[in-house]
Design a protein that fits this description.
The structure is a single chain. The chain has about 475 residues and is of the alpha+beta class. It has two domains: about 5-275, Butyryl-CoA Dehydrogenase, subunit A, domain 2, CATH 2.40.110.10; about 285-465, Butyryl-CoA Dehydrogenase, subunit A, domain 3 (Up-down Bundle), CATH 1.20.140.10. It has 17 helices and 14 strands. The chain has a six-stranded mixed β-sheet, with no helix packed on it. Strands 5-8-9-12 form a four-stranded mixed β-sheet. A two-stranded antiparallel sheet has the order 3-4. Strand 6 and strand 7 (about 180-190) form a beta hairpin. Helix 11 packs antiparallel against helix 15. The mean pLDDT is about 95. The structure holds flavin-adenine dinucleotide (FAD). Flavin-adenine dinucleotide binds near residues 100, 149, 153, 446 and 453. Flavin-adenine dinucleotide (FAD) binds next to strand 7, helix 15 and helix 16.
Length: about 475
């Protein structure tokens, strides 16, 4: 099947699945008052591919059918540039507010398939074979994939990864006639209500003896025993004037319970193989997937800078402090843009022919953006002040008695019509202040591990020769 349309994507969501929102088991995601807006928003992402086939589609290397560029296994610098342009186009649609549009997992699985040898090592040849076959299925059916890679937190003192006998974490229970039976829980499947399938793959390494927890697989969302508990919705009712962002960009996050779930053999990529589980994520995965995450971040910061400028202009706030704060957002946007450019310039080829951006600038961003994004929201709220709440709704503007009064008392500076000013401040609150904004701040802090962990990890892959040489000059120079 070639790249799906939005209509086809929505039809795919109507299948059976166990999605819980509050106390309700949702039977129809597409028309649900708290989920339907984002379903529509994501359908628009699918349609975007058909509106911009030159940027977003490419022929499948075997069938020739048009498929999303995000499924590409980059084999050259030019491939990375093409994929980067496609990732940017998708990120611009939600101005980076949807972190887990399907391209995120498309990029992940293209990277896995492009690292076949890493998956085949440690005696996992059959698992790697099935993984490569799955990636073909994924791209040819234009599947929307959610994922869960983090173990549930019960007692932080026991460490990040489940030790032998842990009763909470996802694990293999037994072999079955057709595959394996798994039981346990994982966090936190963003996009779950809007996915066709769920992916499970490794994150933190597991300790010795935890072989049963060393599993990786993909299964349809409707697989019996699979339950998704969505967090409280941050979705607003569909009204693009009142809630231009939160009416369509709440991608949701769900706690996942595997209540004795059978995974068919052809979907098992790691089967209780600890050595494989602990090694497959340690090479090309971070820089591969972070091409998507950092281009998205760059788009979001450019948007925040533009929004801040528009807010200030609407009330003619040209004081030094406002300009300083806007300049601060600009520096974050510019550093992010520059880091992506540097990572592209220093792109590398991995054994097996996969190309990725250079990990270092992307990792530096990953460790720092969790500190920048909350500050960006703070700045937007400081510039916005009370104005974000002196912003009547579409219904109030539509009232024939209120409208002339709103036009008279709520214009912007320098002749800006009231409606334009109101739209700017409503957009600002939706982006930086409302419930969706609060969720997004939490997302930026944690979606690929917290800032402290990323900072602490940098020595695992960096080359310190340059820094050591500078220090050694003083430590080793003759003292006479
Ligand atoms: C909105 C959202 C969406 C998400 N989506 C997904 C998804 O789609 N799929 C998925 O698999 N996961 C997802 N996650 C989960 C995410 O991967 C984890 O939340 C993330 O890894 C952080 O987990 P943690 O609690 O172990 O964080 P920690 O790193 O433990 O951080 C929690 C706090 O503890 C502190 N801390 C404690 N111990 C340490 C330590 N040793 N080193 C450093 N800091 C420490 C940190 O400073 C931080 O404040 C999502 C999370 C959020 C919030």
């Amino acid at each position: 099947m070639p790249a799906r349309t939005g209509k086809q994507f929505l039809e795919g969501l109507r299948g059976p699945r166990e999605i819980w929102v509050d106390g309700e088991r949702v039977t129809d995601v597409v028309d649900h008052p708290l989920l339907g807006g984002a379903a529509r928003g994501l359908a628009a992402v699918y349609d975007l591919h058909h509106a911009h086939p030159d940027v977003l589609l490419m022929p499948d290397e075997e069938t020739g059918e048009p498929i999303p560029v995000s499924h590409m296994i980059p084999r050259s610098r030019a491939d990375l540039a093409k994929r980067g342009a496609a990732l940017r186009k998708v990120a611009e649609y939600s101005v980076g507010l949807m972190g887990r549009t399907p391209d995120y997992m498309n990029v992940t699985y293209a990277g896995f398939a492009g690292s076949r040898d890493a998956w085949a090592a440690q005696g996992n040849e059959a698992g790697a074979e099935r993984l490569v076959a799955y990636q073909k299925f994924l791209r040819r059916n234009d599947i929307s994939l959610t994922h869960t890679i983090v173990q549930p937190t019960v007692d932080k003192a026991t460490g990040d990864a489940p030790g032998p006998g842990n009763p909470h974490a996802l694990r293999k229970v037994e072999d079955t006639a057709n595959g394996i039976l798994v039981r346990g829980a994982r966090v936190l499947a963003t996009l779950a209500p809007f996915a066709d399938e769920l992916a499970v793959y490794p994150a933190s390494p597991l300790p010795a003896g935890s072989d049963a927890y060393a599993v990786s697989f993909c299964i349809p969302m409707g697989t019996p025993g699979l339950k998704f508990l969505c967090r409280d919705s941050t979705s607003s009712r569909w009204n693009l004037f009142d809630h231009p962002l939160s009416s369509r960009f709440d991608e949701q996050d769900a706690f996942v319970i595997f209540d004795d779930v059978e995974v068919p053999r052809d979907r098992v990529f790691i089967d209780a193989n600890l050595a494989s589980y602990n090694s497959v994520m340690t090479t090309s995965w971070p820089p591969n997937v972070q091409q998507q995450t950092m281009i998205r971040a760059s788009v979001k910061l450019d948007f925040a800078w533009g929004l801040a400028l528009r807010m200030a202009a609407s009330i003619n706030a040209a004081d030094p402090e406002t300009m300083r704060m806007i300049g601060e957002i600009w520096t974050y946007a510019e550093f992010t843009r520059a880091a992506v450019v540097a990572a592209e310039a220093e792109a590398t080829e991995w054994p097996g022919g996969l190309w990725t951006l250079n990990r270092s600038p992307l990792h530096a961003l990953r460790a720092t953006l969790p500190l920048w994004f909350p500050r960006v929201n703070e700045i937007l709220k400081l510039i916005g002040s009370h104005n974000v709440f002196a912003a009547p709704t579409a219904a109030q503007l539509a009232d024939k008695d209120l409208r002339p009064l709103i036009d008279r008392y709520l214009p912007g500076a320098k002749g800006m019509p009231a409606e334009e000013r109101i739209r700017i401040f409503r957009l600002a609150w939706d982006f930086a202040g409302g419930a969706l904004a609060s969720r997004n701040e939490q997302y930026e802090r944690f979606y690929l591990a917290s800032s402290p962990r990323n900072l602490a990890r940098h020595l695992a892959f960096t080359d310190r020769a340059r820094a050591d040489r500078l220090v050694d000059r003083f430590l080793k120079e003759p003292l006479d």
